[in-house]
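Researcher: We're reviewing a set of sequences before deciding which ones to prioritize for further study. For each one, I'd like a predicted 3D structure that I can look through quickly. This is HTH-type transcriptional regulator MetR. If possible, include the structure in token form so it fits the rest of the review sheet.
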Amino acid sequence: MLEIRHLKTLVALRETGSLVDAAERVHLTQSALSHQLKDLESRLGGELFVRKSRPVRFTPAGKRLLALADDVLGRLEDAEREVHKLLHGEAGRLNMAIECHSCFNWLMPTIERYRNHWPAVELDFSGGFTFEPLPALVQGDIDLVVTADPQLIRGVEYVPLFAYEMQFALGREHPLAERPWIEPEDLLEQTLITYPVERSRLDVFKQFLEPAGVEPASVRTAELTLMMVQLVASGRGVSALPNWVLAEYVDQALITVRSAGPRGVWPILYAAVREAQLDAPFMQDFLRLAREHCLKHLTGVRRVSS
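Model: Here's the predicted structure for HTH-type transcriptional regulator MetR, in token form for your review sheet.
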């Protein structure tokens, strides 16, 4: 008989792409997980995924069960959420600040879905570009900060949402497009286009240029991501942005991208929350929905263990 644990295992296999990582996700040994899947396939009379494929490729039967898993597990989560509301109340406040210009792309659909789950929670947000959001979090003025720059502050917890690759956006005819990747020294004669924020908040300086002691020829700022991409496409400079932001412009053939060094630079995006509020059901549900939306819809991001 098909069981909930089977559906959770298949979803874990889809999301992680390997038996080893899926086993860790569902708290089983790889041997136990393999046995569970073989037993399920034996009951159903056929294979659900292609062995020795990476990432894992599912058969039509496996895809049908994954569709069932998305439906059934989603319904179970909804029911659990409703029971939580009945038992513990559903009111609260969730004022957010965002230190990431590009994060509005995924934050808005997450908020819309969240409103349907928690209509009595007061929601508001602002860009944390003109004030210090982490001190405001400690003081209770806001309740959550989306940041890639965690700081050790007493009473604040950082919940990882996902990891992303910082990539360089280049014009399609740019000389650096001929390189397999970008080294810090490659920017010595380049104009670097960034958002108008402090360097301490920009991955390209924190994790790439400053450790190498390199300064670009000049720095130009732009408020909007699309403006930055258009400047890059027209040969006015290069820019460093998250891979999931650049993916749509690559698909449109506006730009090309290269990694920062042979291994790339992979920052982690966090939700900073006060310890006292972290376990509140409405807060936990927002964190779950945000992570779920991003891992499902953003190109190239990776899951990070809490």
